[in-house]
UniProtKB/TrEMBL annotation:
Pfam families: Epimerase. Residues 4-222 form the NAD-dependent epimerase/dehydratase domain. Gene3D superfamilies: NAD(P)-binding Rossmann-like Domain (3.40.50.720). SUPFAM superfamilies: NAD(P)-binding Rossmann-fold domains. This is NAD-dependent epimerase/dehydratase family protein.
Length: 317
């Protein structure tokens, strides 16, 4: 039995992780901005804002976990969000957690990073036929807060591996998560009457089923292997393949035209997305999962195509 503290424990992913760890017999502390409406039996739920450095240090000093699972971040900003607030949570909050781990003598930290940390670049995965491996550089994109912040977090972790190797790290660069109850800004793209693509770009997606992510995090806590791992199912699906599975048409737009339309639309307040969004559609990071399977020791239960199909037919059985 291990003592595990989970930041973001009341979120979508955190809730499943906390429940799984408690079910496995670990001593679990779930830390988040709110206590869940239905607390997990046997779990200590504490209110914690990771932007409060003193509170983070105090919480870890009091709970003395063996392992910290750091999930707290802002993936989908709300209407009242700001770049400053997002950075305070994603970057400063991570720094507070890592500093507190060192001060409290935590043995291992498991961090949920993202494929977005690689960034959206035309030469992504050029050395491996378009597939990104863990040895490819983490470049992010300044224009995308989440991508930029995950890059900064990964640079912070790399520095810490050099200066404090006693704190073991498992860093998970996670692709697009799908599951029975998943609805987010990515799946919203697939709910539209017509799917949008940049002309001349396949815009492939890699998917991972949510129960696989939970199993991987649990293994990261208790297993012997540390390091950085892409988290995705085998293979990828292009926008055209996704549209065919959904039975929907594809709207193929030249990049300059879409960029101009987004620029005008944001200026008029018709859309929250700006012209930089074309990079998100055009140069998606496609994650190779070889190291996840051969080194970490987990083969996803569903391929990207199987995960998408399971999400597509959810609730129809």
């Amino acid at each position: 039995m291990l003592g595990v503290l989970v930041t973001g424990g009341s979120g979508f992913l955190g809730t499943s992780v906390v429940g799984g760890l408690a079910g496995a017999g670990h001593r679990v502390v779930s830390a988040d901005l709110r206590v869940p409406a239905q607390p997990v039996p046997g779990v200590d739920h504490v209110v914690l804002d990771v932007t409060d450095r003193a509170a983070v240090h105090r919480t870890l000093a009091e709970t003395r976990p063996d392992v910290v699972v750091h999930l707290a971040s802002i993936v989908t900003p709300g209407k009242d969000s700001s770049r400053e607030r997002e950075r305070a949570v994603d970057v400063d909050g991570t720094r507070h957690v890592l500093d507190a781990c060192l001060a409290a003598g935590v043995r291992r930290v498991v961090v949920s990073s993202s494929g977005a940390a690689y960034g959206y670049h035309p030469d992504n995965g050029a050395a491996h036929g378009g597939w990104l491996t863990e040895d490819d550089p983490v470049r992010g994109n300044v224009e995308f807060a989440y991508s930029d912040h995950k890059r900064q977090v990964e640079e912070m972790l790399a520095e810490l591996r050099a200066t404090h190797p006693e704190l073991e790290q498992v860093v998970l660069r996670i692709g697009t998560i799908l599951g029975e109850s998943v609805d987010n800004q990515i799946t919203a793209l697939f709910e539209r009457p017509r799917l949008l693509k940049i002309r001349g770009s396949d815009s492939p997606f890699v998917f991972i089923w949510d129960t696989d992510v939970v199993a991987i995090i649990q293994r990261a806590i208790t297993g012997p292997v540390t390091g950085i791992f892409n988290v995705a199912g085998d293979g990828a699906l292009s926008i055209d393949e996704i549209a065919a599975r959904l039975g929907r048409p594809v709207l193929s737009v030249p990049e300059p035209l879409l960029r101009a339309a987004l620029r005008v639309g944001r200026r008029l307040g018709l859309t929250a997305y700006g012209p930089e969004q074309t990079r998100f559609l055009q140069y998606r990071p496609v994650l190779a999962n070889d190291r996840l399977k051969t080194v970490f020791g987990h083969t996803p239960s569903r391929t990207s195509a199987e995960a998408f199909e399971a999400w597509r037919v959810r609730g129809r059985a």
